[in-house]
């Protein structure tokens, strides 16, 4: 009697016997079909917004030794803003014709996002057979940030992968390689991931910095002689990057410029939120730095969200870079286990449009501000959760060195040791596997 190979037997229709199997059988087909729709239908169809065209044109100009940094910044079309090092790395795109090159770039970013999802599962000790795998894949490819990254065809998927690999390498203390990955991300996309270097700094992982600095510097030195107008990047493009634009900009200053908010009020809002971020980062460092996965992923989300919101430019699809932070919801002490956090996340992750034919002004305001409010509310939620834990721990006398702010119910194994000590006068040996340790397999 013929027996199908093992990998094919996994696809045989079976009746689920457990809740986990039911969820797996339901979510995997939905997740896979959603991925296929986003990659081969929505992304290939494209959009009026085309981030790929200026990148391809710049790559073609580079290969033909023509001027690259010639964008007219008076228009609202996507501009080519990559540094010379980024131009050097993406130049192979122009070897193919524009259509096939775009398809390859879509596939590259889709593959990077899927690989990043797998690495996130490993980071939080989940396997591909767990319910978390299809749930994460579906959530990612249902989000605005992934859909528009693929449809507009930009490099954000690769930057997400670089971020997740950087976090893995930090946890494994492979500092030089972590610096290489960060350096490559900076070389392509500029300093968008650079705030994460603060995490390496406070953890004392100094070896990250030499390679993180050397890689983009070396690539720029190689690229400059090959770009006929490399000086224009410094005199024409870089000044534009430091300006605040009032379109396609969800940062506080962008929406403030669009709605005509007074400068003094804009600064008060920015400084107030910056203060919340700094206090939250201090609490994380002071009380959670030994809880490595929680500390690194929560701090990374806080730093990046704060950068998007408080800098001169923040675009909605940058939110892809907070996926490691959002995955912390599976941890017992996550700061995201409350409904206001998910109201905030809906604001900057949902693909829904709030433009209304009936209430045009209100709908337009909701659509333009939802990302800004979502990022802002997330920062406030993190501050409030950590602040509440700090005040509760101070009332209960738990502010001791090396102890987290978590109440006892978040760590039942520690509670069991405390109870055993109280009854017997000494603690019996307990072997427990921390739920927040990274996978090393």
Concise overview:
The protein has 441 residues and is mainly alpha-helical. It has helices spanning 6-9, 19-45, 52-63, 84-90, 98-123, 132-142, 144-152, 156-171, 175-189, 197-202, 208-223, 230-241, 252-259, 263-288, 292-310, 323-326, 339-349, 360-395, 412-424.
Detailed description of the structure:
The chain contains 19 helices and no strands. With 441 residues, it is an all-alpha fold. The protein has a domain at 246-406. Residues 415-441 have low confidence and may be disordered. Helices cover 63% and strands 0% of the residues. One of its GO terms (molecular function) is hexosyltransferase activity. This is DUF2029 domain-containing protein. It holds the Pfam family GT87. InterPro entries: GT87.
Secondary-structure blueprint:
Blueprint: H1 6-9, H2 19-45, H3 52-63, H4 84-90, H5 98-123, H6 132-142, H7 144-152, H8 156-171, H9 175-189, H10 197-202, H11 208-223, H12 230-241, H13 252-259, H14 263-288, H15 292-310, H16 323-326, H17 339-349, H18 360-395, H19 412-424
Descriptive keywords:
441 residues; disordered C terminus; mainly alpha
Strand content: under 5%
Count of helical segments? 19
Helix proportion: 55-70%
Major β-sheet profile: none
Shape: globular
Radius of gyration, rounded? 24 Å
Number of strands: 0
């Amino acid at each position: 009697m013929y027996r199908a190979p093992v990998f094919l037997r996994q696809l045989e229709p079976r009746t689920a016997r457990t809740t986990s199997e039911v969820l797996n059988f339901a979510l995997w087909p939905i997740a896979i079909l959603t991925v296929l729709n986003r990659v081969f239908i929505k992304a290939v169809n494209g959009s009026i917004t085309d981030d790929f065209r200026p990148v391809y044109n710049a790559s073609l100009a580079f290969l033909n030794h023509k001027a690259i940094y010639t964008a007219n910044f008076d228009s609202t079309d996507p501009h080519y803003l990559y540094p010379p090092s980024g131009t050097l790395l993406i130049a192979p795109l122009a070897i193919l014709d524009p259509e096939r090159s775009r398809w390859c770039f879509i596939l590259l970013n889709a593959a990077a996002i899927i690989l990043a999802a797998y690495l996130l599962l490993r980071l939080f000790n989940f396997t591909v057979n767990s319910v978390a795998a299809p749930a994460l894949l579906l959530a990612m490819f249902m989000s605005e940030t992934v859909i528009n990254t693929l449809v507009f065809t930009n490099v954000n998927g690769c930057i997400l992968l670089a971020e997740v690999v950087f976090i893995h390498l930090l946890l494994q203390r492979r500092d030089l390689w972590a610096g290489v990955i960060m350096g490559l991300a900076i070389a392509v996309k500029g300093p968008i991931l650079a705030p994460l270097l603060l995490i390496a700094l406070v953890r004392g992982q100094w070896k990250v910095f030499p390679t993180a600095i050397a890689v983009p510097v070396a690539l720029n030195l190689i690229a400059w002689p090959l770009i006929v107008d490399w000086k224009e990047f410094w005199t024409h493009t870089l000044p534009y990057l430091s300006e605040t634009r009032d379109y396609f900009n969800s940062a506080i200053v962008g929406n403030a410029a669009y709605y005509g908010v007074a400068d003094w009020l804009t600064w008060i809002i920015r400084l107030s939120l910056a203060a919340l971020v700094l206090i939250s980062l201090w609490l994380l460092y002071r009380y959670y730095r030994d809880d490595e996965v929680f500390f690194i992923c929560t701090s990374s989300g806080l730093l990046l969200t704060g950068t998007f919101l408080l800098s001169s430019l923040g675009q909605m699809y940058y939110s892809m870079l907070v996926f490691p932070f959002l995955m912390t919801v599976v941890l017992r002490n996550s700061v995201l286990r409350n409904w206001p956090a998910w109201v905030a996340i809906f604001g900057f992750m949902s693909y829904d449009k709030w433009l209304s034919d009936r209430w045009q002004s209100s709908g337009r305001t909701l659509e333009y501000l939802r990302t800004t409010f979502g990022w802002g509310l997330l920062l406030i939620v993190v501050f409030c959760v950590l602040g509440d834990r700090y005040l509760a721990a101070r009332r209960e006398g738990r502010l001791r060195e090396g102890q987290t702010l978590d109440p006892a119910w978040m760590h039942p194994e520690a509670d069991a040791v405390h109870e055993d000590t109280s009854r017997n006068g000494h603690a019996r040996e307990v072997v427990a596997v921390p739920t927040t340790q990274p996978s090393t397999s």
